[in-house]
Amino acid sequence: MTDTLVQATDLHKHFGNNRAVDGVSLHIKPGEIYGLVGSDGAGKTTTMRLLVGALLPNKGEIHVCGYDVLKQTELARSQIGYLSQRFSMYEDLSVLENIRFFAEVRGLSQTEWLPRSMEILEFVGLADFKDRRAGQLSGGMKQKLGLASALVTRPRLLLLDEPTTGVDPVTRQDFWQLVIKLVSMSPSPSGRGVRGEGVSVLISTPYMDEASRCHRVGFMKLGKIIAEDTPSNLRARLNGRVLELRGNPINTLRRIAHQDEDVEDVAAFGDKLHLRVKENAVKKVISRLTKQIKSQNAELIELRPVPPTLEDVFIALSDI
Amino acid sequence: MTPIISVQNLTRKFGDFVAVDHINFEVHKGEIVGYLGPNGSGKTTTIRMLLGLLKPSDGKATVLGYDVFKQSEDIRARVGYMSQKFAIYDDLTTLENLTFYGGVYGINDKARIAHTLELVGLKGHESTLTRDMSTGWRQRLSLGIALVHKPKLLFLDEPTSGVDPTARRAFWDLIYELAEGGVTILVTTHYMDEAEYCERVGVMREGKLLAMDTPTNLKRTVITGDVWEVFAHPLERGLEILSAMPGVERVGLAGDHLRVISQRVGKEALQNLLSRKKIRVEKIERGEPTLEDVFLALAR
Q: Min CA distance, B94 vs chain A (Å)?
């Protein structure tokens, strides 16, 4: 038992001239939820495919649960559950039949698959729907079926590629509660369900509200991880440097903020502006802007320091 | 001033299923309004009715002063529509794509097309093949296509899905410029990150428009309690205890901490109860309400 479940070192994957993954190293601990955050084309999906051994790297080493993915591919894979972006299921098969299919493909025997499938369906909350055709499920339920299928082999590493695209916040909340329970070290209170000791989750997303739920986040850009830390530590990098400004007319406020020498960046967010200011300049900026806004006959509703968001941090990192 | 969009009791049924259920709202000139809801909540059905592509079962709507029932041709000639699913020809260049779609609208003026490319920040990239462009740039081209006939009203369907915050910001800066120039914008999305950029946001769920206001007001009026971020171990046990705590409106797991919303229960009360139950509390910090909190509170 090592204290690192995923150990990937200096991964490179090129497609022609495109360096899709350009020197990525990842170390994920048991019980950790790690978020790979970046835009389409940043290299998130390619990184996941390298980890499951579906693609061969041009360079680099990957160990999952101690197995070398390049040399012991099948052994490594047996430890991994993968929910891809385009998860497909058989719409005319029932929920249980779908899980059975995935279980049998992964080599589970007759005696194993049924109790395990029921346990997992119970865990994701689909037990009452086991006989329903997959095609009749709501979006959120389909997603849970996808998760259940990925869990049927009791993997120690779960890879989720943009799993909550297209679902509403209520469903997303449910989904995340499942993921967090899965990695949580304490057994479920009922003593039943899936025990999640040591399961790690690697999740990819372009959305900051998802990223903020992960234990640790790696910001990816052009095939590289440009920053990696816990969401709180990442936010702390900009502590005391983000101001929220509200008032009218917003375009005048924006222009005034832009002209201030200590304001590094002005971002419009609907009815408010977020200003990133130079270190230790908050007080100066507040007093200067307040005066400026008054002198230009604009209305100031509120100007105050706010806790930085992950979005503020991502943008600040991209500016460097 | 006549509203750009005016919707009264607009309803659409498909058999027994009520896709859009008596919704009412107005959008004024130069506004950027978000229409937030999950897939299947009735967003697209609403837009299709506003474009005159689908007949309402009940209610009234006007767009740019035209009746959606009777004058849908007039509406469609004056609005722009940008969708994720919009076809950009991969083996054509930016300029060729824009020229092609301009032609569809009867726009053959080269200066207009050049100006549109400049407007969306693609000047200098006229001869780039679109298949070689990043998602962010393709989104700008799609916006250009939606703008080439100078619409007064623009419908954007999840315009910045799949891009990182830097590309999203750059795109929204364009949108703010358009709005400043008098274009009205309606954005449908199920992403909170996108809704945060809108001046007003309508929240849709199961065919009903639950609320419409500025993000700031929504957070203030819907989330009347305080938000606390509780870092404690073990987390799951903490969740159970706080879920049962009187006065706590909502507790959720948020990665490595709990998010608690409550009007009456403060930091000390949370700390005391958890300590009494032998939960190790690392820290409790004040959090900011999010649009997601708003959605969850309204959906309850």
A: 19
